[in-house]
Design a protein that fits this description.
Elements lengths: L4 H6 L16 H14 L13 E10 L3 E10 L5 E2 L1 E8 L4 E8 L2 E2 L3 H6 L38 H8 L1 E3 L7 H11 L4 E5 L8 E5 L13 E5 L2 H11 L6 E2 L15
Parallel strand pairs: 9-11
Antiparallel strand pairs: 1-2, 2-4, 3-6, 4-5, 7-10, 8-9, 8-10
């Protein structure tokens, strides 16, 4: 059967003369490309981390129509007391790195010993107050009756907003220190990473302790609560149904789908 020259010209070559595949790379190949590029180009991290051995790990990946979105955590190798940084790679399907940016730098944790070294200030002693005796001819007066204060009952939504705490570095420079203190005080608390956007994978609910919650950096909004019911009420105020996920490592207990139906 004879070949049609017109059809042959329309079809791109899928293999090189040596037999190697041409064209699109897979998501697995994009992960390897991101790690290899980060390892070979440490000047991107600045003088503090340039030229040193770094531990790189893929923490999220997304396969779009035209691009792969790869996010890596990075930290110095060895004994590093802190939370890793995060960087993002956008790679097209042909293996070209279109974009690279640093989302968070590594943050060192405050050690409990440092906190214990600071002396606890004691309040100054209260000086004795002189005793004032009322004149005997002064008429006796009783205390005025207190006016009762009526507090309206809290709805479940308002209770959620009251019970949950939000830590976000762009609006509070002390957010990271306060967030780490909250985790120490609530070792079984819930933490919702609120990235925003439309991808539910980046808006994830964790329960401490969870190795998937590998960033204490408050550059991403952290919504923290000790109650599962309260944190879900708070999430419902921020996200549409199906707009968030539970941690895939099972730290939240029995899986409850956040998607409708």
């Amino acid at each position: 059967m004879a070949e049609n020259p017109e059809n042959k010209e329309d079809k791109p070559d899928l293999f090189s003369p040596s037999g190697e595949a041409l064209g699109y790379i897979s998501l697995e190949q994009a992960r390897v490309l991101a790690i290899r590029h980060a390892r070979d180009n440490t000047d991107f991290y600045g003088p503090r981390y340039s030229g040193i051995n770094l531990v790189l790990e893929v923490i999220s990946q997304e396969d779009g129509e035209e691009y792969y979105d790869i996010r890596l955590s990075f930290r110095p190798a060895g004994r590093f007391r802190g939370e890793p940084g995060v960087e993002q790679f956008v790679i097209d399907k042909l293996g070209n790195i279109e974009y690279r940016q640093m989302l968070d730098e590594p943050t060192e944790l405050d050690l409990p010993e440092t906190e214990q070294e600071s002396p606890v200030s004691q309040p100054p002693p209260t000086p004795p107050q002189p005793t004032v005796t009322a004149p005997t001819d002064a008429p006796a007066t009783g205390p005025e009756p207190a006016t009762p204060t009526i507090t309206p009952p809290l709805t479940p939504e308002s209770q959620a907003s009251t019970m949950c705490q939000t830590f976000y570095r762009p609006t509070d420079p002390q957010a990271e220190q306060q967030f780490r203190a909250w985790m120490r005080e609530n070792p079984r608390g819930y933490v919702f990473n609120h990235f925003g956007g439309t991808n539910p994978r980046y808006n994830c609910l964790h329960r401490l302790p969870c190795r998937g919650l590998n960033r204490a950096n408050a550059g991403v909004r952290k919504i923290c609560c000790t109650s599962r019911t309260s944190v879900e009420h708070r999430i419902a105020e921020l996200r549409e149904p199906g707009g968030w996920e539970e941690c895939g490592l099972g730290c939240c207990g029995q899986y409850t789908s956040s998607t409708p139906g």
